[in-house]
């Protein structure tokens, strides 16, 4: 689409384009929720392109077929909604989409166009109910701009069409009405309105949006389920998508965290993997896990679970979880109500059917590895009420037992555990490639392949320790976290990890990680990973500023503004406290001068309005005539005729008649026609212009050859 | 200021239709005007050979109802132009040789006491002709000059307190000899402004002059000229000029040209608004004579020098022929500096 003189778009075309863009924006708002499903997305795409291509030809021709189709769709969707298979909001969105498609195919009258815009608005509302993602925000802004264009141009078009007559026809086909300035002004106006609405949004009390967003998008996360299988082949995916956003208190000053995020404790060895020992969950943390801690400190993590996990697992930092608090703004969605504590120390929330989740977890962490070597002896004593499944499997490979014995014999507990860990870390290589199905994956890993992924490392360490009667267990979750621009730590999908916890008398379960440190977390650091992080940062900001912006945040924002003002006044009045830089005299003077100049400029602008060129624009015929002369001059100049800048048409004609008489007849025709159309108001058809230029071209070619 | 309004144009010219003349005159169509113009130019060209541009300009002045100042040396065809024009149009013609002792009454006419009727009777002077050749206008006193110029502007003369309308069409062709200084009264700028154009004839080229010698002068050709149109046709032509369409860009172009003469450091006194009006009127006439009902930029550009050169006063003027040439050159260069609309 270009807006050059006489090459812009007509009012008619502009109106149709604006409406189409509006529909697209609204569709984008719904599609951003990801709830539509691939078939409906495809259907819309096909119907959309089809409507643009063939819509005009078949508009209002197959009314009966459309009605039957829509009625059938309504019945089908209705049945699904009543049957409980489909959410009513989603069902309504589907139907609104179908109605929009119908209207796209049948748009001729003003009523059709208005209905189309109304349906777009409905789609936008559906999008708002389904999601409140950043993408929706973008689509919303697009809708605001294109919708304003569409509304005003539709109104304009049909008022002009109603007038009828040649002037109306000329207006409708004029390419000078839809100027970039007009579109820019309209778009700016709508964005200004949006901005005003945003101000209201931030200043007045409100509830969150995105309330109808359902939890169906929660994904099943590998490693968070209550089973782990060590079989299978292929390569583990290193997915840079962010799953957790974490803020820690106290905040570590590190670009990358070296923390484990515990999800599940898997205690029972199945021979091919791990499973959770028991499904018992209680309202209280198991007491035996809480006891026996010596010098300790607390760490609180504020965690946003981005994807939402179907397993209902609460991720906790390293240490013993003490309490979980759910952070949700006022919302129409169901919020997690209960925390359930697993017998092995993992934590769950209920109900699971919630969307994005945010909670704050406090854990107690031992201050240091305070080890009294004399007290510790093998095998370690578990507390009497502990229910830990730490028995070595009966069919354990004797080589494993032998290796365990060799590594731990005669050492105090902590040294023994550390020697097993460092043995694995130093002698085995990390790979994301799976080994395939093995009858004993651990023996295969330890004695044959000597490389594997984190689950093999941790499983091997647990079995080695258990073979010597040391209570150890396998833990899954995530490792690491990379600091983002927004100040939170992003834990990615590829950071999924598995490690070991060992019971240390007096300290509880202590984390040991046999996987080489450099291979624990996500390795992805390319452009894609950076883009994902950037996008996640934007989404986090959107979420905190828009979606989760509530009364408290409002209060904080106003307070921040007040602080800013107070600070500014303090600085200006020179009463700044120590540490706050004071504004010096010259700076104040410079400020005053800048303000005065600005005021003067504004005043002059208001006082002396710019001279407005109130000239009537040229008619299309005049423009064509102008273009004809311009192109003729260009062609002649190219053919070697001297064409000074200020030469007039008749002077050029006289000059050509003198210097290049063979061109004279063609030029005379052109100048006569130019004169009649440019100054005399005679019509000049485009074909005529082209024919004249072609004749000139031919003559030029012939004379060049001759 | 709007220059496209025909009503304002009338203010600087003599009235379209003098009192007593028939009121309703149907203007010529552009095609008829072109035909008339071509016929006239051809007819005059027979007597005044090789001076097509001059004839065209003279016809423009006639159509625009203005008056001509022809500045050139004697013997190049000023009188021939006037006579050929009058013969081609069947206009009454008179010629006044301006001398220093010529009195206003000598050209306007005087009231003479008629003893038979016992009352004063007006005896019209040479000014009461449709085409007046005022020869060597700078030789007469300012008093007589202003009498002539007033008649040109008003289209009437007042003798003994009675206003007497001049015939229509009324065209004065005044001549000046730029080489004679002794005993002349050069016309002041205010009076030069009354002439729509200043033209110079110039020497004929060698072949034309040779043909002239072999053909035995212009006299025989002149006597053989027949009229191609009458006074009525001329008035219809004049009536058609105000109807010529002027695009806003053309008006802007005229304004820009006039402004250029006012802003140039070479020029002490730029063209007046009357100059702008005259230029536009002449351009309209030219467009009409070329068979168009609208002006194009070339109509204006071609007439800039004849219409504006005598209206500007150069800084440090020297007078005479050099002055004319200098001002024409300055105006031409200024004109080239203003870009014509396309």
Notable characteristics:
heterodimer; A: 706 residues; alpha+beta; 4 domains; five-stranded antiparallel sheet; 20 helices; 20 strands; elongated; B: 342 residues; alpha/beta; Rossmann fold; five-stranded parallel sheet; two-stranded antiparallel ribbon; 14 helices; 11 strands; disordered N terminus
Characterise the protein shown here:
The complex is a heterodimer of chains A (706) and B (342). By secondary structure, chain A is an alpha+beta fold. Chain A has four domains: 11-203, no CATH class; 227-525, no CATH class; 581-611; 620-705, no CATH class. Chain A is 49% helix and 14% strand. Chain A is elongated. With 342 residues, chain B is an alpha/beta fold. Chain B has one domain: P-loop containing nucleotide triphosphate hydrolases (Rossmann fold, 3-Layer(aba) Sandwich). A five-stranded parallel sheet of chain B has the order 2-5-8-1-9. Chain B is globular, with a radius of gyration of 20 Å. At the A-B interface, helix 17 and helix 18 of A face helix 13 of B.
Could you provide a short overview of the structure?
Chain A is an alpha+beta fold and 706 residues long. Chain A contains 20 helices and 20 strands. Chain A is elongated, with a radius of gyration of 37 Å.
Q: State the share of residues found in helices of chain B, binned by percent.
A: 40-55%
What would you call the quaternary organization?
A: heterodimer
Characterize the largest beta sheet of chain B: strand count, sense, and whether it forms a barrel. Answer: 5 strands, parallel
Radius of gyration of chain A: 37 Å
The residue-averaged pLDDT of chain A reads 80
Main sheet of chain A? Answer: 6 strands, antiparallel
User: Please, how many helices of chain A?
Assistant: 20
């Amino acid at each position: 689409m270009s807006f050059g003189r006489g090459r812009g778009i007509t009012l008619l075309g502009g109106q149709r384009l604006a409406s189409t863009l509006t529909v697209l924006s609204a569709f984008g708002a719904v599609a951003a929720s990801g709830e539509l499903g691939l078939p409906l997305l495809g259907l819309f795409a096909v119907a959309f392109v089809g409507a643009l291509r063939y819509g005009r030809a078949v508009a209002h021709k197959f009314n009966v077929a459309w009605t039957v189709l829509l009625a059938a769709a309504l019945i089908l969707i209705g049945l699904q909604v009543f049957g409980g298979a489909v959410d009513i909001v989603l069902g309504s969105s589907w139907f609104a989409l179908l109605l929009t498609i119908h209207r796209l195919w049948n748009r001729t009258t003003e009523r059709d166009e208005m209905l189309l815009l109304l349906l777009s608005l409905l789609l936008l509302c559906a999008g708002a109910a389904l999601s409140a993602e950043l993408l929706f925000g973008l689509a919303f802004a697009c809708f605001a701009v294109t919708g304003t264009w569409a509304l005003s141009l539709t109104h304009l078009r049909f008022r002009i069409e109603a007038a009828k007559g040649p002037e109306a026809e000329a207006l409708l086909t004029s390419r000078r009405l839809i100027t970039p300035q007009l579109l820019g002004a309209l778009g700016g106006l709508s964005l200004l309105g949006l901005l005003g609405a945003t101000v209201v949004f931030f200043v007045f009390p409100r509830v969150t949006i995105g309330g109808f967003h359902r939890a169906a998008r929660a994904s099943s996360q590998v490693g968070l389920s209550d089973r782990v299988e060590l079989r299978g082949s292929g390569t583990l995916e290193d997915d840079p998508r962010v799953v957790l956003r974490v803020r820690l208190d106290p905040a570590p000053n590190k670009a990358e965290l070296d923390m484990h995020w515990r999800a599940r404790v898997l205690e029972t060895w199945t021979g091919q993997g791990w499973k959770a020992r028991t499904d018992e969950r209680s309202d209280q943390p198991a007491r035996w896990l809480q006891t026996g801690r010596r010098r300790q400190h607390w760490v609180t993590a504020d965690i946003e679970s981005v994807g939402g996990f179907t397993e209902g697992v609460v991720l906790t930092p390293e240490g013993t979880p003490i309490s979980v608090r759910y952070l949700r703004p006022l919302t129409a969605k169901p919020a997690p109500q209960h925390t359930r504590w697993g017998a092995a120390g993992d934590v769950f929330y209920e109900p699971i059917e919630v969307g994005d989740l945010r909670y704050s977890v406090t854990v107690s962490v031992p201050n240091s590895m305070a080890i009294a070597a004399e007290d510790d002896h093998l095998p370690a004593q578990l507390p009497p009420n502990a229910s830990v499944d730490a028995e070595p499997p009966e069919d354990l490979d004797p080589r494993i037992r032998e290796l365990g014995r060799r590594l731990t014999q005669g050492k105090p507990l902590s040294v023994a555990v550390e020697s097993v860990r460092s043995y694995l870390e130093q002698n085995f290589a990390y790979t994301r490639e799976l080994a395939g199905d093995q009858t004993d994956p651990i023996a295969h890993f330890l004695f044959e392949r000597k490389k594997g992924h984190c689950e093999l490392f941790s499983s091997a360490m647990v079995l080695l320790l258990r073979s010597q009667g040391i209570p150890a267990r396998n833990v899954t979750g995530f490792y690491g976290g990379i600091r983002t621009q927004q100040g939170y730590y992003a834990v990615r999908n590829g950071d999924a990890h598995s490690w070991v916890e060992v019971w240390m008398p007096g300290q509880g379960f202590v984390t040991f990680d046999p996987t080489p440190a450099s291979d624990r977390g996500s390795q992805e650091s390319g452009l894609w990973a950076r883009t994902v992080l950037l996008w996640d940062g934007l989404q986090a900001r959107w979420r905190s500023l828009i979606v989760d912006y509530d009364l408290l945040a409002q209060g904080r924002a106003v307070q921040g503004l007040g602080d800013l003002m107070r600070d500014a006044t303090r600085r200006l009045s020179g009463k700044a406290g120590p540490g706050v830089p004071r504004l010096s005299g010259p700076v104040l003077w410079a400020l005053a001068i800048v303000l005065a100049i600005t005021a003067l400029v504004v005043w002059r602008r208001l006082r002396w309005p710019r001279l407005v060129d109130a000239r009537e624009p040229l008619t299309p015929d005049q423009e064509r005539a102008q273009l004809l002369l311009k192109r003729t001059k260009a062609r002649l100049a190219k053919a070697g005729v001297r064409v000074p800048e200020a030469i007039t048409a008749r002077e050029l004609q006289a000059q050509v008649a003198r210097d290049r008489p063979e061109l004279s007849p063609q030029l005379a025709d052109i100048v006569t026609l130019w004169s009649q159309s440019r100054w005399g108001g005679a019509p000049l058809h485009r074909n005529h212009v082209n024919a004249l230029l072609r004749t000139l071209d031919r003559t030029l070619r012939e004379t060049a050859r001759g | 200021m709007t220059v496209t309004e025909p009503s304002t144009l009338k203010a600087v010219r003599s009235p379209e239709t003098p009192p007593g003349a028939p009121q309703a005159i149907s203007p010529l169509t552009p095609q008829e005007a072109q035909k008339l113009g071509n016929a006239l130019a051809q007819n005059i060209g027979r007597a005044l050979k090789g001076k097509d541009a001059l004839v065209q300009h003279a016809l423009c002045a006639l159509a625009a109802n203005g008056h001509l100042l022809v500045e050139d040396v004697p013997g190049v065809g000023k009188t021939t132009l006037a006579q050929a024009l009058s013969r081609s149009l069947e206009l009454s013609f008179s010629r006044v040789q301006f001398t220093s002792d010529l009195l206003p009454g000598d050209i306007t006419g005087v009231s003479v006491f008629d003893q038979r009727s016992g009352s004063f009777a007006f005896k019209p002077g040479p000014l009461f002709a449709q085409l007046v050749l005022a020869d060597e206008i700078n030789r007469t006193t300012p008093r007589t000059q202003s009498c002539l110029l007033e008649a040109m502007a008003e289209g009437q003369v007042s003798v003994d307190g009675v206003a007497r309308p001049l015939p229509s069409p009324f065209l004065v062709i005044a001549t000046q000899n730029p080489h004679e200084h002794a005993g002349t009264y050069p016309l002041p700028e205010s009076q030069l402004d009354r002439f729509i154009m200043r033209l110079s004839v110039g020497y004929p080229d060698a072949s034309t002059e040779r043909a002239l010698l072999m053909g035995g002068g212009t006299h025989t050709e002149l006597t053989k000229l027949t009229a191609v149109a009458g006074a009525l046709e001329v008035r219809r032509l004049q009536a058609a000029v105000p109807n010529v369409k002027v695009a806003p860009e053309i008006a802007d172009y005229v304004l820009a040209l006039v402004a250029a003469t006012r802003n140039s450091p070479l020029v002490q006194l730029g063209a007046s608004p009357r100059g702008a009006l005259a230029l536009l009127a002449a351009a309209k006439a030219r467009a009409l004579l070329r068979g168009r009902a609208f002006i194009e930029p070339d109509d204006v550009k071609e007439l800039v020098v004849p219409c504006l050169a005598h209206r500007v006063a150069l800084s440090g003027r020297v007078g005479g022929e050099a002055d004319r040439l200098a001002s024409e050159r300055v105006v031409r260069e200024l004109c080239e500096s203003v870009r014509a609309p396309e």
